[in-house]
Amino acid sequence: MDENGRLTLGSLFSGSGAFELGGLIAGIRPVWASEIEPFPIRVTTRRLPFVKHYGDVNSIRGDEVEPVDIITFGSPCQNLSIAGKRAGLDGKQSSLFFQAIRIIKEMRCVTDGRYPRFIVWENVPGAFSSNGGEDFRAVLNAVCSVKDGDIPVPGPPKGKWANAGCIMADGFSLAWRVVDAQ
Hints:
- By secondary structure, this protein is of the alpha/beta class.
- The chain is about 25% helix and about 20% strand.
- It has five helices and seven strands.
- The chain has helices spanning about 20-25, 40-45, 95-110, 125-130, 135-145; strands at about 10, 30-35, 50-55, 70-75, 120, 165-170, 170-175.
- The chain has a five-stranded parallel β-sheet with strand order 3-2-1-4-5, with helices on both faces. A two-stranded antiparallel ribbon has the order 6-7.
- Strand 1, helix 1 (about 20-25) and strand 2 (about 30-35) form a beta-alpha-beta unit.
């Protein structure tokens, strides 16, 4: 939390700053962002001049950036989307998801597990079916590994992931839900 008791936010794959704007509306203070595309960076630097920009996620060290309460990330979806070639998490763009997990783990390590307290991943519904559902299972495994590497993540019930679900573990929980953005 910041000096005024507000939650703080860092955004990976920031785009034009939707998570940062949503945070502001909810009373959360955006602290930093990561984006590589010039136009979205211009949008956020103009609208949110107090947010630090760190560029490419590949060069960000979670143990060097300011710790935040919440890390949001909408990692590239091209390889997960049903409109794409379906390379899944092994694809060049969508595999960047694992860079976000690395950054989160580095921050948690340097802060003795205090930060981030929450992570929010946004992506496409195709993530549920990519590689027969195994890519979403890999996402759940990776997120669970932030807290504890030995959390068993079962496969999708009846071979298909539900549009909403959760995993309850000792000291943390993980939940997902499909929300129509229209």
